[in-house]
Amino acid sequence: MFAAPNAHLEWKGPKLTGQLYIGLETAEEVDALWAKVKDRANVIYAVDDFVYGAREFGICDDNGYALAFGAPSKTT
Q: Which pTM was predicted?
């Protein structure tokens, strides 16, 4: 998806402001993946349930691209 500049990072001028979104099947899968990567990745935002109905988290890959992993939240 293409998005506005990430509110979790300092704005340093125009660049790819989207993120690559990887959809998982369940919120439990999101939590399991979060547990595996949270201490080994550059975290943009921690796992959480968002108002738009997704449970997700965001990290940067080794090239600086923003990756989000998410699934429908348990409450939707």
A: 0.76
